[in-house]
Amino acid sequence: MKLRKVTAASATVCVLALTATACGGDNNNGGGSSSGGGKSIKIGIKYDQPGLGLKKPDGSFSGFDVDVATYVAKQLGYKPNQIEWVETKSADRENALQRGDVKFIAATYSITPERQQKVDFAGPYLLAHQDLLVKKDSDITKGTDLNGKNLCSVTGSTSAQNVHKTIAPKANLKELSSYSECVSALQSGQVDALTTDDSILAGYAAQDQYKGQFKLAGLKLSNENYGIGVKKGDTKLVDQINKALEKMESDGSWEAAVKKNFGPADYKNEPAPKIGQIVK
Ligand code: GLU
Questions:
Q1: Nearest CA to ligand 1 atom 8
Q2: Structural domains in the chain plus CATH codes
Q3: Which of 88, 129, 169, 248 is surrounded by the fewest CB atoms within 10 Å?
Q4: Alpha-carbon distance 8 to 249, whole Å?
Q5: Atom of ligand 1 nearest to the CA of 158
Q6: Confidence check: pLDDT of 267 > 70
Q7: Could you report the per-residue pLDDT of 124-180, keeping only the tens digit for each?
Q8: 3-state secondary structure of 73
Q9: Which residues, 6+ apart, have CB-to-CB distance to 269 below 8 Å?
């Protein structure tokens, strides 16, 4: 009898808390804690992608993914100071979710059938396209120009996978662990081009230290539907995040985040995607 009362009481606390992580039995799902007096949520982002996910020298974070994640976290019941940002590089994302290192990932994370075998996605919340970044005076203008050329991309990304499959079968692909390393390789002439999403490339091209040095080829080499990754099977969280994303689009916050983060790089983004609709 006594035990029952305790169970009922804690169930009420869980309902009031309005979050998954604040309730018992969820500890191995990672990404959050309610111990030590304050709950928190761990969210995976990129740390080196200006305009999307960037850790600034003062230790603060900025970018469209950061703003989307912050909005979603708020809808889940977490204030900005309750968010713990975790770097999730392209090749680490599925593992980070499977291990429960983070509750969700907003890191230029394209929804693909292969990834959906391992993780679930909410969204999409942005449609980007694979493109090329080259030096200003480069004569590379199309995908097949890359055959025989040195090209950089990142391990575990759709960008790297597409190179030999659909873009340039004979390109010499150098795979590094982050796009910022690829930008350095492009600047120093080690590679002739860098390929990934136009959203990411525009952010680098607009950086003060690279201004006037690079150009985007302006090719839409693929459709990249950015989703928010969660642990496989957590359909409740997917539904909660989808509701938050719908609200973000309908109340104008999505558009505001686009202007704030893509405006400085002059990135012409696609209109807000319909939640649940993937552009093939
Ligand atoms: N959006 C693509 C992907 O998920 C490329 C960008 C990235 O590596 O994060 O693989």
A1: 157
A2: 40-128+223-265 (3.40.190.10), 130-216 (3.40.190.10)
A3: 169
A4: 37
A5: 10
A6: yes
A7: 999 999 999 999 999 999 999 999 999 999 999 999 999 999 999 999 999 999 999
A8: helix
A9: 126, 127, 128, 199, 258, 262
Is the Cβ atom of 40 under 6 angstroms away from ligand 1? no
Q: Judge if the beta carbon of residue 225 lies within 6 A of ligand 1.
A: no
Q: Which atom of ligand 1 is nearest to the CA of 224?
A: 1
pTM: 0.89
The backbone torsions φ and ψ at residue 41, rounded to the nearest 5 degrees and listed phi first, read -135, 135
pLDDT of residue 23: 40
Tell me the per-residue pLDDT of 84-116, one tens digit each, with 9 for 90 and over: 999 999 999 999 999 999 999 999 999 999 999
Pairing of strands 150-154, 172-176: parallel
pLDDT at 54: 98
Question: Hunting for tokens 């600034």 — which residue is that?
Answer: 56
157 CA distance to ligand 1 centroid (A)?
Answer: 5
Ligand 1: distance of its center to the CA of 48 in Å?
13
